[in-house]
Design a protein that fits this description.
The chain has helices spanning about 5-20, 35-45, 55-65, 70-85, 95-100, 105-115, 135; strands at about 25-30, 50-55, 90-95, 120-125, 140-145. The chain is an alpha/beta fold. It has a single domain (about 5-145), classed as P-loop containing nucleotide triphosphate hydrolases (Rossmann fold, 3-Layer(aba) Sandwich), CATH 3.40.50.300.
Length: about 150
């Protein structure tokens, strides 16, 4: 199990963005498969009274009819809608179900597109995809599970 201090550090960082208006409200929790990302994300979500979305179980059926045409801009739009359902934190897990249909270029385009997303709640995206998040999102908004 992960140290409580690791989870608490993420919570403290996210809380700062919940309180202050900001264009930089997207965070990444990255780690290898079966590294505990989902457990960590659910604990953070519970602590901050957020909304947890398992993209594979909760939203893929909505996306699947248009999957071949579903773009980073479409995903950004849907995140904006889902974020309105919570005042604190929106956690999006299992993005690989969608991202496995995109090229790495499209994946990076998505993160560039949302890196300065202006929404009311904070978004935490959980992923196993190894992309240069620090270069795209910024170092202080990327948490790596090791």
């Amino acid at each position: 199990m992960y140290k409580k201090s690791f989870i608490n550090n993420i919570i403290i960082e996210i809380k700062e963005y919940i309180r202050a208006p900001s264009a930089y409200r997207v965070f990444i929790l990255f780690g290898a498969p079966i590294s505990g990302k989902t457990t960590i994300a659910k604990e953070i979500c519970k602590e901050l009274d957020g909304k947890y979305v398992d993209l594979l179980k909760d939203k893929l059926n909505m996306i699947s009819p248009k999957l071949g045409r579903y773009s980073p801009l479409d995903f950004k739009h849907d995140i904006n809608l889902w974020a309105k359902e919570t005042e604190s934190l929106l956690v999006i897990d299992e993005i690989e179900a969608l991202f496995d249909t995109w090229t790495q270029g499209k994946q990076e385009d998505f993160f560039k597109l949302i890196s300065r997303l202006r929404i009311d709640s904070v978004v935490l995206i959980i992923t196993r995809l190894n992309l240069p998040y620090e270069d795209i999102i910024g170092e202080n908004r990327v948490f790596r599970v090791t």
